[in-house]
Amino acid sequence: MHDPTLAEYKGRIRRELKSRRTQLTDQQQANAESALAQKLLGSLFMMSTKRIGLYFSCKGEIGTFPLIQKLLLDAKKQVFVPVVSGERMRFQKVDEQTPLLLNRYGITEPEPDPLKVINPRFLDLVCVPLVGFDADLNRLGMGGGFYDRTFAFRQGRGHKPFLLGIAHQCQMYEQPLPTESWDIKLDAVLTDKDWYFPGSEKQKPTD
Ligand SMILES: Nc1nc2c(c(=O)[nH]1)N(C=O)[C@@H](CNc1ccc(C(=O)N[C@@H](CCC(=O)O)C(=O)O)cc1)CN2
Ligand SMILES: Nc1ncnc2c1ncn2[C@@H]1O[C@H](COP(=O)(O)OP(=O)(O)OP(=O)(O)O)[C@@H](O)[C@H]1O
């Protein structure tokens, strides 16, 4: 990023949105993660997906551990999660037996195993973490550019893999988020309250 004003602006929005989600109580967090899992598992997306990219949640992000467990045990899906090394992120297959550790950011990861790594082109659906999103489905991430770089090959919406942002409802930013040329385009966003698709006029969740 070369524009210091834009970097500062994105930093300010990131701080505000991160603080919103850390203010959620444990009960709100627990309700949100089970609502999200229920919505995703009950959706039509599940019928046509075999290989799913997900991530182990950290610090205030909507919880993904029960979702991952259900995808593996009940839905019998193949689940791949990010393993970061340097500037790279690889998607590695996990199951209930996979040994887990904490990476340099304090995020849960499987022990690196090159034999379990998949080319992200072969994922059907990728659930993308985000700090914020807006009504046009622009995404603000943690600022590492990992998802932008990993999915730069994708030609845009409608091309595989389907990129689904997942988030707490409070991560929807009321104003348009600043965008940069390399930002990936999300195909949809799912929160604990609602689904968002491109072009949908909806601004508020229907509870
Ligand atoms: N749960 C989860 N896993 C994920 C991501 C994510 O957003 N959420 N990522 C999405 O890209 C990748 C990791 N990206 C990251 C990018 C920046 C920071 C970061 O700057 N964290 C601290 C500083 C940590 C430190 O270096 O001490 C910070 O927020 O200040 C963390 C992770 C891969 N795995
Ligand atoms: N396709 C790309 N190729 C090379 N560098 C990239 C690419 N996409 C993003 N970057 C770099 O990554 C950095 C962070 O980008 P940005 O602030 O948009 O991250 P983010 O989307 O918030 O993070 P993340 O994707 O990790 O959640 C930028 O400085 C940018 O130069």
Automatic annotation (TrEMBL):
It catalyses: (6S)-5-formyl-5,6,7,8-tetrahydrofolate + ATP = (6R)-5,10-methenyltetrahydrofolate + ADP + phosphate. Its EC number is 6.3.3.2. Its cofactor is Mg(2+). Keywords: ATP-binding, Magnesium, Metal-binding, Nucleotide-binding. Belongs to the 5-formyltetrahydrofolate cyclo-ligase family. NCBIfam families: MTHFS_bact. This is 5-formyltetrahydrofolate cyclo-ligase.
